[in-house]
Design goal:
Blueprint (H helix, E strand, L loop, with lengths): L1 H26 E6 L3 E7 L2 E6 L2 E6 L3 E7 L3 E11 L5 E12 L2 H6 L4 H17 L4 H6 L1 H17 L3 E12 L2 H43 L2 H16 L22 H8 L1
Antiparallel strand pairs: 1-4, 2-3, 2-5, 6-7, 7-8
Amino acid sequence: MNYEILFVFIVLAIVAGVVTPPVIKKFRHVFCVPEGWTGLVYQHGLYVRRNNAGRHVVWGRGWTVNLIDLRKASLLVAGQEVLTADSVSLKISLLVTYQVTEPTKAAHETQNSVGDLYNTAQLALRAVVSGVAVEALLNQRLEIGAQLLARVQPEAAKIGINVLAVEVKDVMFPAELKRAFADVLKAKREGQAALERARGESASLRNLANAARVLEGNPALMNLRLMQSLSAAQNAGSTLVVGMPGGFVPLKQPAKPASTEHNEAT
């Protein structure tokens, strides 16, 4: 009798060993959430809780997990054709930096949170650029980025996303507008060069006028200047033609002593 009971127990243990693992596997679920992510846990499609990074085990049927990335990310809004306040058509691209801060909203309030963020940035770009002239757009890119951020941030917060920055990445002009800007820039550079030449010529004339006044008060300086020019020409290996210049001022002879004059008279 004891052997029969023992045999029954052995048979039950063997059956349990064969049957139990698949049954346990159906009821035991292991979820691993990576660092920087979060896991939204559902049972039969109903949201239950949020699991942070790590290994999690749940028992029962119908358990699933949806992993949401919480790390900072960037979204490139490709070149959009927009009209400025002065009716100039431009292509402008944006770089949006964002981070998911409320994963339950991002998962439950919208079908595609990143797509909604993209569309919000597009609409904000059209609204802001339509009130800015093309020259102001080029000179105020940082201010325009701040205006875009102020428009995008509240809308993104509704779906659990915190927008950290919105920056104007590229501004692309039509070919004819590029040529027009190049011509304007060239004209400005030429005008600045002409102004600098005029300033240089005025300074040179002032220096010549000052030199003329100095020579007028000191005629002997002309002789020194002439000797310097002759010396420089000789050192350069040039041929010298000696002649008395018309403006040459003769130097005064020193006065002879009275005793010498008396001797010469005797």
